[in-house]
Amino acid sequence: MAVPGWLYDGSSAVRRTVEVRASAGGGLDIEFADGGADHVPGEALCHIESRRDGDVYGRTDIAGWRLGLTGPVGEIAEALPGRQKYGRWIDRTGLVPSILIALAISAAVLFGADRFPAAVAPYVPASWEKKFGDALVGDFGGRFCTNADGQAALRKLARELSSDSDRLNIRVVHVPIVNAAALPGGNIVIFDKLLEQASGPDAVAGVLAHEMGHVQERHVTQAMIREFGFSALISVLGGSAGSGIDTLGSLHYSRGAEAQADGDAIVTLRRAGISPAPTADFFHSLAEQEKIFGRADAALGYLSTHPLTAEREARFRASAVNGTAYRPSLSPEEWAALSNICH
Amino acid sequence: MNDMQGVSAPAEAEPESAFIFEGSWREYLPIALTNLLLIVVTLGIYRFWAKARERRYLWSRTRFIDDRLEWTGTGKEMFIGFVVVMLVLGPLFFGVRLLIEALTIRGQGGAVALVGLTSYLVFFYLIGVAQFRAIRYRLSRSYWHGIRGGSSDGGWGYGYQYLWKTIAGGLVLGLLIPWKMANLWNDRWNKMSFGQHPIEAGASWEGLMGRWLLVYAVPIGALILTIVAGRMFVVAAIAGGSPGMAAAAGVVAILIVYLGFLLASLSYYAAYYRQMVEATSWGGIDFVFTARTKDWLKLIFGTIGLIIVTLGVGFLFVGYRNWSFAVRHLEATGEINLDTLLQSQAAAPREAEGFADAFDIGAF
């Protein structure tokens, strides 16, 4: 029994009436009502769609070739391919198992994406980061403060804190905000208003030790990887490239990273014999100012990148050991020179 | 072949339209729900396959004269297209970001502005290219009678047209935007074809200016009116000791301005699409788009209402509603000789809608 149908050959729009039979060697034999015949190999056939008046098949090797079967397929059913619904993988696996597998993979991906930066950061060569950081920072638009005595005092302060501080590029920049930042490639910048607001060298030492902690723990590298990876992920999920990549400039650290840098800073200060109390006082005074001026005040930039919490202040305060003979990190002359580094 | 086959679109007087949408929301709901589910569990990656399923359904329920359309695009090709474009554009965006950042830190304001402006221009250029290639892709995957459409043009030239006409159209307070829109419509559609017949568009922007000016006039007029009326009302309300009334009047005034603006824009868009489609033809078939401002209003508020009433689930039907709206208001007249309608020779693009996807834009 032949199955009635219609056919588009993919090169002309003419719809031809056909009769279809199963071929002895597999595939279909097609006989045209207006004369002529054709043979379709079974492996070239694919299911296109089900219509009310029957199923439509196509050929994987001829675009636009369509065969519609309008009668009961009966005996040629075995020669016809199965239909696709959700996509090949899902059809093969089944909808529910596919969903469960996808859920598991998604959870693993999200978990991995969270851990990835911290895991990879130690393996990024310091020299790459250095090149990248120097290219990014350059001479800070000529805003580096260059007073020689001030720079010497800053260098001494850094050496008090860490023996290998010479590989860091620690600079004061003449930008009127209260802030300090660890930038890629071991670049640490202190904005000059922070020197004005700090009560003395020990508070600056605390802030500097915190930023050195970020460098030490490779938080800067982690943040770069996270920002880039995150924006790449967002662009896959959300679809637009412009939206995600915009955030790179502001390298933000997680709460955990901030706490870790604080911990490092406290250890550093203790080892150097510098009192943590002035740092706690500095945080306290910033928090007080925030209550008056609000966080948006540009002069309080430090707060936007280092959210102050009572715990942070308390942690520094609690790290002071009673009876320890703390020594000032810089002499009054050196502190005066550092304070004047931009003048 | 001896029997000449030809099909004709019904004359305008007949009630039957050449384009008929035969879908039903009950039929589409399972597709929409499983799509949503799969998109969620795959962190969004399934959305390419979801789009393909959605289009396969919508196209297959759209009848043009004597046969249904067919969508042959696949999720896989859209996914690959997206990944490829991201691999090209991602590093480019990233590099420009870094460059701007480095220049900003160095205080090179002029260079930042230059780089910013250049990347802005490149961005606009690529939006034009993306729009063109999205239409080309959709036509190349749309079949009717086993015949598809497409374009043998890559859209790179259209990118330039788009760039300079967008800039020119924006001059003089944007008054030339109707000129730009009509012009670009012709630029892109004249490069498209279906089968071996080219699509021809000869739209003019004459007659659109009145409604376009309304887009400017309504908010300005409403603003002046509300300022005048509002002052009187506020003075009276405050004198009567009722600042709450004054605030309410303010809210009402803002709503009126907003609604006026929406209405004016819609009336412009309705006229724009009617005029563009009417000036477009293909192989002896002329098209008409019948949606008037009130139809667009019904579409938009219907969609918003549906989303609200269904607590958000209705957003699954936005694509469905838009498609059925377009098909229901599209009509065609004329006759196609099927014997002479042959397969398109334009190369079928491979990157699918990667570009358009990257910029998050629609095509038509």
What's the pLDDT, averaged over the residues of chain A? 83
Strand content of chain B: 5-15%
Count all strands of chain B and give the number: 12
Order of helices and strands of chain A: EEEEEEEHHHHEEEHHHHHHHHH
Count of helices of chain A?
13
N/C terminus separation of chain B? 38 Å
Choose one word for the global shape of chain B.
globular
Rg of Cα set of chain A: 35 Å
Going by helix content, strand content and strand pairing, the class of chain A is alpha+beta
The succession of helices and strands of chain B, N to C, reads EEHHEEEHHEEHHEEHHEEHHEH
Low-confidence segments of chain A, given as residue ranges, are 238-250
Average predicted confidence as pLDDT of chain B: 86
- Count of helices of chain B? 11
Ends apart, CA distance between termini of chain A:
101 Å
Radius of gyration of chain B: 24 Å
Biggest interface reads: A-B, 51 and 58 residues
